Amino acid sequence: MSNSFAHALHANFLGHAAEWYKRTIIIFLIINPILMFTVGNFITGWVIVAEFIFCLAMALKCYPLQPGGLLAIQAVLMGMTSPETVYHETEANFAVILLLIFMVAGIFFLKDMLLYLFTKILLRIKSKQLLSLTFCFTAAFLSAFLDALTVTAVIITVAGGFYAIYHKVTSGKGFDADHDQADDTGIGNETHEDLEGFRAFLRNLMMHGAIGTALGGVTTLVGEPQNLLIGQIAGWDFGEFFVRMAPVSMPVLAVGLMTCLAVERFRILGYGAQMPLAARRILEEYDRREDERRTPKQRAAIMLQAGVALFLVLALAFHWAEVGLIGLAVIVLATAFTGIIKEHQLGHAFSEALPFTALLVVFFAIVGVIHDQDLFQPIIQFVFTLDIEDQVPVFFLANGLLSAISDNVFVATVYINEVNEALQSGAITREHFDNLTIAINTGTNIPSVATPNGQAAFLFLLTSALAPLIRLGYGRMVILALPYTISMTITGLLATIYIL
């Protein structure tokens, strides 16, 4: 009886995850207390960070919430961090949590309009290079005035719509049939090759769009959450923030867009995938059919959604309210005027964001370990020991490296507070403070594209329902981001050396 119970307990642990993955997580949980008592908290803290990154890297094997959550709970029980620290980190990022809960759901209710608009763009622009550049530049432009998570939610919704249409039809079903997008059993070998090509095509577009959010997010005060914090401490308004960042952000933007064209032109590291002809025919047929069947009621709904989207852009650009509250307003407006009034109709919109919201709070527990164990402190102290002329580029690289490991908001908070204390104590001049602040902001936004955990928008994409459908895992994201990481980081570094 005991053996069967133990077997059942092991079978239930992390469900259908691979056996080797289950054993790896168990080993992590066993060795962490041993490490704490043998090599100390500092090294154990870095091991826990590495273990959590492993869970993120294996997101397609098992959603990171459960294994990452077990590591976070263990870290609290071991005293590596405290519930108070986790709560403080969560409270400090409450605006991001509100954004995820309400804004992502709000975008869901604009799906018909977005799918209509982007289907037209996708079918009108035949050149893959031009289409990729359009996605990248549009995401950059929107992220400069909105926020990266919102823009990422938009492109996920669009790509998910395209995939659903193609997968349904290529499985032998009609446009209106119910269908499980994760089930490939109805797809033949010949069609399966087209499906893999369409997945590669969508992966390319998603990564171009995600990189675009980083290119635009670094430029303005409202582009990323840490930008507001940095601007507030530095005393910069919207215009001054843009001008201060421009010597670094504008060259990086130009190089980023050129990188977009280059990777498509020369088919670098998986880019250059073309839309299969079968997929184009299906989307064209869908577009033609929808245009013919669209009723006045549906047209009115699309126009209403376009109006709500315009309200969203204006509200975020002029910061009429916190981003999450604007998302709540979008939900109210987009549903009240399109006939969505039942609770079950609303519930589907929140299914995408809430698992990631929970994962983000778990992530804050790992950030709490970093904070309470001062894991970054040796790096910060080392940077301040350098000559003044070397500090700016090193700050850029250090912020980028640490952001790629942890969270760019946390890293920016730590560094900007340290630099501000140095300014207040008279250790550095105001001019040097301004240059270091630029290095902090650009460092946390640009090199951090190297990994999905470097930016919340990238992590959201990795853990979205779309990622497993198009086979976009952690490793593949790192590889696809690599050309951008290299070109943008080198450009930003040179700008901090020769322009600032």
Detail the topology: elements first, then pairings.
Blueprint: H1 2-12, H2 19-38, H3 41-57, H4 65-77, H5 83-92, H6 94-108, H7 111-124, H8 128-145, H9 148-170, H10 189-217, H11 225-234, H12 238-265, H13 277-293, H14 296-317, H15 323-336, H16 343-347, H17 353-372, H18 377-384, H19 388-405, H20 408-424, H21 430-445, H22 456-462, H23 466-469, H24 474-498
Short description:
The chain is an all-alpha fold and 500 residues long.
Describe the structure.
By secondary structure, the protein is mainly α. Among the domains are: 80 residues; 218 residues, no CATH class. The chain has 24 helices and no strands. Helices cover 76% and strands 0% of the residues. α7 crosses α13, α12 runs parallel beside α21 and α19 packs antiparallel against α24. The longest helix has 29 residues.
Structural class: mainly alpha
**What does the largest sheet look like?**
none
Oligomer: single chain
Q: Report the total helices.
A: 24
Order of helices and strands: HHHHHHHHHHHHHHHHHHHHHHHH
Radius of gyration equals: 23 Å
Give the beta-strand count.
0
Percentage of residues in helical conformation: over 70%
Described by the principal axes of the CA atoms, the overall outline is globular
| Overall pLDDT level | 85
List low-pLDDT spans: none
The span between the termini is 71 Å
Q: How much strand content do the residues show?
A: under 5%
